[in-house]
Specification:
Blueprint (H helix, E strand, L loop, with lengths): L9 E4 L6 H14 L5 E6 L5 H14 L3 E7 L2 H10 L4 E5 L8 E7 L8 H13 L12 E3 L3 H11 L8 E5 L9 H7 L3 E5 L20 H9 L4 E5 L6 E4 L8 H12 L7 E5 L5 H9 L2 E5 L3 H11 L3 E3 L5 E2 L9 H15 L3 H6 L5 E8 L5 H11 L4 E3 L4 E5 L2 E7 L5 E8 L2 H25 L2
Length: about 450
């Protein structure tokens, strides 16, 4: 397992797993990697620890000779936009995304605003281990500031026409950084916006940050009570969006992705959709409907963008509600996802539930099982042998394909757990599949623990 980098970037408990010293070392490592010159855009979310880490990273960057453009409080997509908009050599966003407030994280972006690919993360890790290069006082970097929010909003308004209908939207930003952009942007597009949990508070008292059904009950009830057309829920850095329909039903992340893709690609010939092995089969249905091609890759933002760069693509996405608009930005874009979902409703004149029922229905279950990091590889290899009679995909973890569904067992890149996903066309069958996966996974973990004694 990587010492610093997980699925995307560095993340950990504040002042225990992630400290200001680590942030300084990472800033200095990036400056060293950039040959002690160039300019780096730095932004942060509104966690109580984020400004502390910003100061440490800026110190490391300038001590290594890089100039810094501080963009301040910014969602991740806005920082990605700003890195490219201001022609920076790299970007850093300080955020732990959907993790609780006691966590924070650091993500590195290249000059195009895309997350660092794996090999660049490994380079930074090696530099941190060996020690970065400090410059002389004559070459210490300069720090400047810029406002990027207005430029970002203008750029979206130039791409999307004002809506014909005055959609009533409840926007739940979880007291997080999406609050500075999403409600304002939707109002400018003509929506009647009811803000919910949109007061910035780095302790996030309104709800847990991950936009999953168990955290969105209050939003669903509010949509129904206010007779709104839909609800929009974002995570801690606004790179993911989940939609609630007018009846209070919460759409899964991959259905949001599928509906946006169906609308976004409607006029493109043979479009290519890049997604991970964890997304629903509904993406295969959408691809077939569009006459296109689906490309599946490992889980994680760098993997999706890396696949696009290697083989091309028109849109990308993950099962968690993260969508990539490759002709816009090379990052998960929760703000644009909200805009494009409403654009689909506006152009079709249909409600969320009407759009949703236009696609085949699948049942999904997601579970997790604790497993020590050092056992993960052996557990996965043992599982592969136990499922050898089935069609297997080892792209990322183990995906077992059945005639009427699939099962994915995958080790987390950031936590000592395995995730177990299952999907089928009936609730009974998906329950059978996930129980099968959990049973086999627990047996393998138990066996490997015994073998290690």
């Amino acid at each position: 397992m990587p010492r610093l980098f997980g699925t995307f970037g560095v993340r950990g408990l504040v002042n225990r797993e992630l400290t200001p010293n680590t942030a300084f070392d990472l800033g200095l490592a990036l400056a060293t990697h950039l040959k002690n010159k160039g300019r780096v855009a730095v932004g942060h979310d509104n966690r109580t620890s984020s400004e502390m880490f910003e100061h440490a990273i800026v110190a490391g960057l300038t001590a290594g000779g890089c100039d810094v453009l501080r963009l301040g409080l910014t969602p991740t997509p806005v920082l990605s936009f700003g890195t490219r908009h201001f022609s920076c050599d790299a970007g850093i966003i300080i955020t732990a995304s959907h993790n609780p407030p006691e966590y924070n994280g650091i993500k590195f972006l290249d000059r195009e605003g895309a997350g660092f690919e794996r090999k660049r993360e490994r380079v930074l890790e090696r530099i941190v281990t060996g020690g970065g290069k400090l410059v002389s006082w004559k070459h210490i970097g300069h720090v400047s500031e810029a406002d990027v929010l207005d430029s970002y909003i203008r750029a979206i308004l130039e791409r999307v026409s004002k809506f014909k209908y005055k959609w009533k939207v409840v926007v739940d930003c979880a007291n997080a950084v999406g609050s500075v952009v999403t409600p304002r942007l939707l109002r400018e597009l003509g929506c009647k916006v009811i803000s919910m949990n949109c007061q910035l508070d780095g302790t996030f008292p309104g709800r847990k940050l991950e936009p999953v059904p168990e955290n969105l009950g209050e939003l669903a009830r509010t949509v129904v009570a206010c007779k709104a057309d839909l609800g929009i829920a974002q995570d801690g850095d606004a790179d993911r969006t989940i939609v609630v329909d007018e009846q209070g039903k919460i759409l899964s992340g991959d259905r949001v992705f599928a509906l946006v893709a169906l609308h976004y690609l409607r006029k493109r010939k043979r479009p290519r959709i890049v997604t991970t092995i964890a997304t629903s089969s509904v993406l295969d249905d959408v691809t077939k409907k569009l006459g296109g091609k689906i490309l599946r890759t490992k889980i994680g933002e760098p993997e999706v963008v890396g696949e696009f760069r290697k083989r091309g693509g028109d849109i990308g996405g993950e099962e968690n509600g993260g969508v990539f608009f490759f002709d816009w930005l090379l990052c998960r874009e929760g703000i644009m996802t909200a805009v494009k979902f409403l654009d689909a409703m506006d152009r079709n004149g249909k409600s969320v539930s009407e759009l949703n029922t236009s696609l085949p229905r699948y049942h999904q279950v997601k579970k997790r099982v604790e497993c020590p990091n050092e056992l993960k590889v052996r557990v996965l290899n043992t599982l592969s042998k136990r499922f050898a009679e089935y069609k297997l995909d080892r792209t990322d973890g183990l995906r077992v394909v059945f005639d009427d569904g699939w099962l994915l067992v995958r080790p987390s890149g950031t936590e000592p757990i395995f995730r177990c996903f299952a999907e089928a066309k009936t609730g009974g069958r998906v329950k059978e599949l996930v129980e099968l996966g959990l049973r086999e996974l627990k047996l393998c973990i138990k066996a490997q623990k015994r073998a290690g004694r």
